[in-house]
């Protein structure tokens, strides 16, 4: 079975973003409207910047799908950048006439030499030998995550065919923490989806908005925490036999790869270090012909494998490092002290980060699912999955 994997390409102000996915089996319904809805979820959020007023992301499926059904061939997708018309010269992939004064002025106006602390600017410029930091900024920008959400939507199409579904919600913005402990799964999901901060706590929501407003007035930015939950997970995805097969490790890497994410937790996460073993570990019972747990402190993962409980992943996003009130830095050419460059940005993008993390977890789960139940078509995978469920019923 081919691994479910993907590559993306494109720059923040380039012509478009692209993704190509290998390992999508034949016979799965691929709904373009659903992908576009997922892209729209990424763009919503109180505290987003001016770029969201320009870009209304939609996807064009270029291959691997016929009549709305996957064919088994690689799936390629494209997302156009609406702002491209203002960047055609400065981001041209073709050679330009650098002796033309007009062209020179446009390119110079887009040039960046002042490093932004907290970004990829310094390390990227040194690593690749660039004097214009725009060569780093354009690809390291979080704009790339739009393609990840599109790929995640394809992964969700595969998972949902087997009733595996997930959602995300924001648990903290700055120092304001949401209280969701008394909310049931579906209530939490519905309230989060209807909130422009993806926050299910109405009281915390108002305080979060006020915190974002204060940060905006001060030319500052805010980070926060989010949680991802996936339900109806079969037992046994992932493996304990090698370090790079452990599903919790793969999930952590996938979420950590998102720009600005600084920590990832599974289940109780760092709280696990405060608990006695008798408080932490989820006891197992056999009731009504099935295995059950009354707690889920492990977050659905034990020994690098799913244990049948909900997958619970938590992440922390740092405050966005591009600020109207810039930090002290240097010019990478002259080494003189300057205030860091300011590029149009958000005040708070934690809700968007949560949606991207949701997509990344879906991608990892889809890959693990297809490895476990893999086949070249939906029908073959369905047979494998149903056989495994019957096996579980006989245990």
Q: How are the secondary structure elements laid out?
A:
Elements: E1 5-10, E2 16-22, H1 32-43, H2 51-54, E3 59-63, E4 65-66, E5 69-70, E6 75-80, H3 101-110, H4 121-128, H5 134-140, H6 145-160, E7 165-173, E8 176-177, H7 185-193, H8 202-217, E9 224-231, H9 247-256, E10 261-266, H10 277-280, E11 284-287, E12 290-293, E13 301-302, E14 305-306, E15 311-317, E16 328-330, E17 337-339, H11 350-373, H12 378-393
Antiparallel strand pairs: 1-2, 2-6, 3-6, 4-5, 7-8, 7-9, 9-15, 10-15, 11-12, 13-14, 16-17
Rg measurement, Å: 23 Å
| CATH architecture term | 4-Layer Sandwich
Counted by DSSP, the helix tally is: 12
Q: How many domains, in number, for the residues?
A: 1
Number of β-strand runs: 17
Percentage beta strand: 15-25%
Q: So, the CATH homologous superfamily?
A: Chorismate synthase AroC
Question: In CATH, what is the class?
Answer: Alpha Beta
Detailed description of the structure:
- The protein is α+β, with helices and mostly antiparallel strands.
- It has a single domain (5-393), classed as Chorismate synthase, AroC fold, CATH 3.60.150.
- The protein has twelve helices and 17 strands.
- It has helices spanning 32-43, 51-54, 101-110, 121-128, 134-140, 145-160, 185-193, 202-217, 247-256, 277-280, 350-373, 378-393, and strands at residues 5-10, 16-22, 59-63, 65-66, 69-70, 75-80, 165-173, 176-177, 224-231, 261-266, 284-287, 290-293, 301-302, 305-306, 311-317, 328-330, 337-339.
- The strands form six sheets. It has a five-stranded antiparallel β-sheet with strand order 8-7-9-15-10.
- β13 (301-302) and β14 (305-306) form a beta hairpin.
- α6 crosses α11 (350-373) and α9 (247-256) runs antiparallel to α11 (350-373).
- It is globular.
